[in-house]
Amino acid sequence: MVISVAAKGFKVERVLVDQGSSANILYGSTYRKLGLLKLKEMRGCLYGFSGEKVPIKGTVEIDTTFDEGSNARRIPVVYTVIEAEASYNIIMGRPALNRLKAVVSTYHLCMKYPTAGGVGAIWVDASIAKRCYQDSLKVGQRKVAVNTLSLELDPRCHEERERPLPVEKLKEVQVGPLNNQRTKIGTTMTKEQETELVQCLQQNSDVFAWSPQDMPGINPNFMNHKLSIVEGARPVVQKKRKQGEEKRRAVKEETEKLLKAGFIREVRYPEWLANVVMVRKANGRWRMCTDYTDLNKVCPKDPYPLPNIDRLVDNVSGYEFLSFMDAYSGYNQIIMHPGDEEKTAFITDSGAFCYKVMPFGLKNAGATYQRLMDKVFKEVIGQDIEVYVDDMVAKSEPKRHQLRLNLEKCSFGVQAGRFLGYMLAERGIEANPEKCRAVINMRSPQNVKEVQ
């Protein structure tokens, strides 16, 4: 839908409302007509549908007014300025629409939003929309920019991880009295902001865990993991599989760590028994997993909903500073229901053991963890923090639930970072360059057969 807005004392027509756009686009010709001079530097480019690259000139924040009179609403909008031919002056993307709290109806050709006096509404100007469409046909084979933003790769960001990850330079600060009690913070803050953040971290250092012994565990009356097994299901005892010497040593070391931490206990005559599977981590170390395939087959799926990723990412974008947090052995902070502990039994050369805490690999472990996060942060989710299972981004809740964070995987006060496959920054949402690398570097088809 196409509307008009007011900016810098001018009425700007041909404004495309695009709910699929992750950025607000201001075209260079419109930028110059508004008489704007200074741009905030921004490295990056936009990519069109056919792969053409359009350089970004910079970003600029403009107070933008929607509608007129009593229905008017004025908000600051951060625009990405580009030089490209298009039939529109502005593309109003999700960052601006979210800030406006707008509800768009393409069926009614109307956009509504809250105002101080009630509800404002903007209706589509059909004649302008028709002219925009006709002009877009004239653009033909000329390069047309679309609003998928992709920053040029930063050499610090080549290692892709699944957890939230900052993309700017970090520095370590001391949080606790011991030398290893350190965490990372961003380097773009002012001295006053940095001092205030470090003091806050030091005053709340007890929310971090330095070792498994620092984890009191979640109160089982508040949350525990209980298995639901189909009635009449027959228990399965897997036959012990052979493993190489290196993996056997790794299994023994990991088992000893789990015993020392109190996460597992020895068990005799288990009805359910699974094998361990060793998986090589990115850092070269081994991760011990348990093959719960047979147990998972007879456990109905927990329908507890996971958050909508698009909503989470939209809610986190546009903030000056972000803090990425990771729970210390998050799943292991949830206690297994006592009656289900022995159903998690696994076999090693050292004997059979079962988990006293919720292990990875169980079918509904993710749903239980999300349920815990929703209960712990129920008063601040959507306002100060966003959570997707064990990925947390703060944009705080009291310590009564005793959840502990992993300092090594936390980063505080950064301006940009990766979250759920997206790049988040103050200027909005961008496509993760690592995820786009294969598409960007894809060779163009050379003949008819390759096109097919």
Automatic annotation (TrEMBL):
It comes from the Eukaryota. InterPro entries: DNA/RNA_pol_sf, Peptidase_aspartic_dom_sf, RNA-dir_DNA_polymerase, RT_dom. Residues 279-440 form the Reverse transcriptase domain. It holds the Pfam family RVT_1. SUPFAM superfamilies: DNA/RNA polymerases. Signal peptide: none annotated. This is Reverse transcriptase domain-containing protein.
